[in-house]
Amino acid sequence: MSTATAADTTLAGYDAEQVRLMEECCILVDKDDRRIGFESKKTCHLMTNIKDGLLHRAFSVFIFDSQDRLLLQQRADEKITFPGYWTNTCCSHPLNKEDELVEENQLGVKCAAQRKLEHELGIPFAQAPLEKMEYLTRIHYLAPSDGLWGEHEIDYVLFLRANVDLNINANEVKATRYVTADELREMFKQADAGEIKMTPWFRLIAENMLFGWWEKLDQLDSVKQPDVIHRY
């Protein structure tokens, strides 16, 4: 991927911690989610590379409390992609490291989710145990953030039912809120009116699958599609 010519300028002016995180290495995959290598988070999120087909692995966590409300976060303004956007509980990437490369039972993705829940929201590992995370399915989507950055991911959808303690990392998360299904529908109306912003992957999951899953939180096995990659 040809990013060298822009190496000194693409991250100029951004938050220092977010720039540092752009050095992490994401897992490259083909359209069938087979591992083909790794590249920096920066390389994976440049639209020039995305337009050339560069695709990486990701996850989206949805945490529901004991009242079946969904925990949302608003991404910090310091974020390089989709700053200030509302989204599901936690969205990030498994990295090219031993424990997050394990594919059996989606263990690597779940380890990454546990790590990021603690990093972004301060949720202790004990409150987000790997064995309680439910893998539902995957989505493949492409979405530009602005002219320079974007996302092109195969995204693993993970559900967790838990009451959690939050200790927000302000460099990652601007705000949080719990919503019912009806309250989330109202937020999408606000987004359509331009009053708030919602991430594209969250909208895709919500508009195509989330509300049906939400009604079956006690019967998730009946809606799981572990071998399917939904393409949008």
TrEMBL record:
Q: Name one GO molecular function term.
A: metal ion binding
User: Listed GO cellular component terms?
Assistant: cytoplasm
Tell me what reaction this enzyme catalyses. isopentenyl diphosphate = dimethylallyl diphosphate
Provide the Nudix hydrolase domain boundaries. Answer: 54-204
Protein's UniProt keywords contain Transferase: no
Kindly state a single biological-process term from the GO annotations of this entry: dimethylallyl diphosphate biosynthetic process
- Cited Gene3D superfamilies: Nucleoside Triphosphate Pyrophosphohydrolase (3.90.79.10)
Alphabetic keyword roster: Isomerase, Isoprene biosynthesis, Lipid biosynthesis, Lipid metabolism, Magnesium, Metal-binding, Steroid biosynthesis
| Record CDD domains | NUDIX_IPP_Isomerase
Top-level lineage group: Eukaryota
> Is Lipoprotein included in the keywords of this UniProt record?
no
Q: Please give the pathway this protein is involved in.
A: Isoprenoid biosynthesis; dimethylallyl diphosphate biosynthesis; dimethylallyl diphosphate from isopentenyl diphosphate: step 1/1
By its UniProt entry, which InterPro entries does this protein fall under?
Answer: IsopentenylPP_isomerase_typ1, NUDIX_hydrolase-like_dom_sf, NUDIX_hydrolase_dom
**EC number(s) for this protein?**
5.3.3.2
Which metal ions or organic cofactors does this protein require, according to UniProt?
Mg(2+)
- What family does the entry list? Belongs to the IPP isomerase type 1 family.
UniProt name for this protein: isopentenyl-diphosphate Delta-isomerase
From which source organism is this entry? Thamnocephalis sphaerospora
